[in-house]
Design brief:
disordered N terminus, binds iron/sulfur cluster, 3 domains, Rossmann fold, single chain, 21 strands, disordered C terminus, cytoplasm, OB fold (Dihydrolipoamide Acetyltransferase, E2P), 511 residues, five-stranded mixed β-barrel, alpha/beta, tRNA-2-methylthio-N(6)-dimethylallyladenosine synthase, six-stranded parallel β-sheet, pyruvate-formate lyase- activating enzyme
Length: 511
């Protein structure tokens, strides 16, 4: 749905029209479902930048005496969207709660990447029905990537009438209007735009914590890997202007943040959509490395767009971390072709060679899908051999899961699930072996750890991450939280490290 359709719909579906629920009409006239087909039509329209977000006067105080609760599924992009929505809620006068039962508004910020992620959300939607029965004034909304899928919206419309709002990833800035409509109308409020080319700059945010922060540098993805729903749910690639990003990072540095992660579905395509300047991720990182913030990371990379200039800049080190997550997905050129990843095994290995030559201490991690439709034993073995050849420190590994609306979901697949599971086990055995070997190298080493808080499993211990994103648990004073401290590794396990702090810290209690 585009802006004009939305305005037309608003006229038909005016909020003061308190009719009984009749969902059939959504299908007939009022509701235009999100369309994966429309989402794929990439126009050449110029990206519009908006700096004029504000909460309309009439909505101020909407949340007075009310609480909101957001449950977030999926990736950092969703986590960051939740921070933005929380900022809007606070601007409207709501208070936050971490108990769904206490909330007056519940939002499920969903993920569409895998089928079981969607099943979890539908399970939660089902559970919330009882709460809605108990508290009829409760508003429940579904947002995030699943809302951009026609099949999901149709299923909610047909089966889950206790949901009050569905809105998409392009409609977050419209949250005040959507809430207002939901309060005024008995009907489910649906606002999902299939295509959107705009960047809204000045949205409020409530960041989780004051040590690490995410900074969006771009939105959307134009790569259309054949298994992936993201280019449909997140729209076309559009980059934020460098000045806006740099200003945000400077502001975070001034606030004392220790680490930022630059975010995008395909950060290596940053700047490709600018018509007026030649400016890419390498240029941006080169500017950001001069800012006084101790750690800078970026995710997620696409090998195809990873250029030499970026490697050159990363090699300068400093606050640019020596860990690169470089999703490969498969070690077979044939499978990569079917996945439409747009690089070959050889090109990927050449990129790795260049990165290692420029940054000898680099740690590489990756994502791998096993059991792609019709993947042969030989092709799978190419993945195993590539894994060893690169020498990744660790990997996220998955069995291929079809997503409706993607080209791969239409492919016939001759690989039985038992074979896929067995391949995953074999791959994971190699991942574990290499991870354990990589961790062994830390034994007795002194590493810099950014301390994030108490250890999850033992509140007497502290936990934090090395520059290469390895988890370290160690005994130390609480005053170390939020600081980068030196820790000697005493026990290297497969997935985490234990150690002891080796520097004196001021024994000042941190609030
Ligand atoms: S680059 Fe990433 S987000 Fe884009 S289509 Fe491929 S897997 Fe999906």
């Amino acid at each position: 749905m585009n802006e004009q359709q939305r305005l037309d719909n608003q006229r038909v579906n005016s909020p003061d029209k308190k009719s009984a629920k009749d969902y059939s009409k959504y299908f007939e006239a009022v509701y235009i479902p999100p369309s994966l087909k429309d989402a794929k039509k990439r126009g050449k329209e110029e990206v519009k930048y908006h700096n004029d977000f504000s909460i309309q006067k009439e909505f101020l105080g909407m949340g007075t005496g009310r609480k909101f609760y957001i449950r977030t599924y999926g990736c950092q992009m969703n986590e960051h969207d939740t921070e933005v929505m929380a900022g809007i809620f606070l601007g409207l006068g709501y208070e936050v709660t971490d108990q769904a039962e206490d909330a007056n508004v519940i939002l499920l910020n969903t993920c569409a990447i895998r089928e079981n992620a969607e099943n979890k959300v539908f399970g939660e939607i089902g559970h919330l029905k009882a709460l809605k029965r108990e508290k009829p004034d409760l508003l429940i909304g579904v947002c995030g990537c699943m809302s951009q899928e026609e099949s999901v919206v149709n299923k909610i419309l047909e089966k889950h009438h206790h949901i009050d709002m569905i809105f998409g990833t392009h409609n977050i800035h419209r949250l005040p209007n959507i809430l207002h409509e939901a309060y005024m109308s008995k009907e489910m409020v649906i606002e999902v735009w299939s295509k959107e080319g705009d960047v809204i700059e000045n949205l409020p945010k409530v960041r989780r914590g004051n040590i690490k922060a995410w900074v969006n540098i771009m939105y959307g993805c134009d790569k259309f890997c054949t298994y992936c729903i993201v280019p449909y749910t997140r729209g076309k690639e559009r980059s934020r202007r460098p000045d806006d990003i740099i200003q945000e990072v400077r502001h975070l540095a001034a606030q004392g943040y220790q680490e930022i992660t630059l975010l995008g579905q395909n950060v290596n395509a940053y700047g490709k959509d600018f018509d007026d300047i030649q400016y890419g991720l390498g240029d941006l990182m080169d500017e950001i490395r001069k800012i006084d913030i101790p750690r800078v990371r970026f995710t997620t990379s696409h090998p195809r767009d990873f250029d030499d200039h970026l490697i050159e800049v990363l090699a300068k080190g400093g606050n640019l971390m020596d860990h690169i997550h470089l999703p490969v997905q498969s070690g077979s050129t044939d499978v990569l072709k079917i996945m439409a990843r747009k690089y070959t095994r050889e090109q990927y290995l050449e990129l790795v060679r260049k990165i290692k030559a420029a940054i000898p201490n680099v740690s590489l991690t990756t994502d791998i899908i096993v059991g792609y439709p019709n993947e042969t034993e030989e092709q799978f073995e190419e993945t195993l051999s590539l894994y060893r050849e690169v020498g990744y420190e660790t990997a996220y590994t998955f069995i291929y899961s079809p997503r409706e609306g993607t080209p791969a979901a239409k492919m016939t697949d001759n690989v039985p699930m038992a074979v896929k599971k067995e391949r995953l086990q074999r791959l994971n055995a190699v991942v574990n072996e290499l991870s354990a070997a990589a961790m062994k190298k830390y034994q007795d080493q002194i590493v810099d750890v950014l301390v994030e808080g108490e250890s999850k499993n033992n509140p007497d211990m502290l936990a934090g991450y090395t520059s290469k994103s390895r988890l370290v648990n160690f005994k130390g004073p609480k005053t170390a939280i939020g600081k980068i401290v030196k820790v000697k590794i005493t026990d290297a396990k497969t997935w985490s490290l234990n150690g002891e702090i080796v520097e004196e810290l001021q024994q000042v209690e941190v609030n």
